[in-house]
């Protein structure tokens, strides 16, 4: 799977994985920044709360984006795969300038949305300039390779991680959330040991990576984004390690990037910036 090509000459929209526990009321900088790039007072936001069975989840985000000044907010209560064929849902998503996927269980997301008309539409709209944000499970499913489970801890083992197909908005990274809070370094290291083509992006709670069309991301929020870069990796024992063994990995780079820092996924270079002066270039 590769990112969709789209049907216009517009730049791809931003891809915004959020590490979970995003602030909704007090200093909600991440949600405010998402709304701003989606058009501010002209934004049309589609909320997809499919990852959880808690009905209030979608309502909370809908009310929040409305209170922040969005022109229109649509909550799509997609609870089964047949909902993904509904013409009214498809037409409502089609008019959005931003799509927000809330948290919960990423396997619930992938088994309900995966391969459906709504998943295909989300991919196409992002290629045509619509911005896609997801928090927690909604962040994990953004990439082609989705971490669907595993064990906490800092040491990678064959049992550290389970990988499942995601939406495929990008095929160059693998994302983990609640990163520092749940000690998930080991499972993202295991993921890149299995597929060294991927760059690991571990996102703390209330933290987001705003990935621009040029594949440079900027960090927003109160935590950090941990980048695990295997581009110069020399060797790994992933193919021969027994289930309980530690996996050896050599020559992997690690960056810890707080708010305002940027990372270029094409050149694998990081820059530390002053978060007080962060702006995002968006063609609206």
Account of the 3D structure:
Helix 7 links the parallel strand 8 and strand 9. The model has no long low-confidence stretch (mean pLDDT 95). Helices cover 22% and strands 26% of the residues. With 284 residues, it is α/β, with parallel strands linked by helices. The strands form four sheets. It has a nine-stranded mixed β-sheet, with helices on both faces. The chain has a four-stranded mixed β-sheet with strand order 8-9-12-15, with helices on one face. It has a single domain, classed as 3-Layer(aba) Sandwich (Rossmann fold).
What's this entry about, in short?
With 284 residues, the chain is α/β, with parallel strands linked by helices. The chain contains seven helices and 17 strands.
The chain-level structural class is alpha/beta
Element order: H for helix, E for strand: EHEHEHEHHEHEEEHEEEEEEEEE
Morphology: globular
Q: Which CATH class applies here?
A: Alpha Beta
* Spatial order of strands in the largest sheet: 3-2-4-5-1-10-11-16-17
| Main β-sheet description | 9 strands, mixed
CATH superfamily: Class I glutamine amidotransferase (GATase) domain
The number of distinct helices, counting runs of at least 4 residues, comes to: 7
CATH architecture: 3-Layer(aba) Sandwich
Question: CATH topology, what is it called?
Answer: Rossmann fold
Count of distinct structural domains:
1
Helicity level: 10-25%
Compute the average pLDDT: 95
Roughly what fraction of the amino acids lie in strands? 25-35%
Low-confidence stretches: none
Topology, number of strands: 17
Overall radius of gyration: 18 Å
End-to-end C-alpha gap: 28 Å
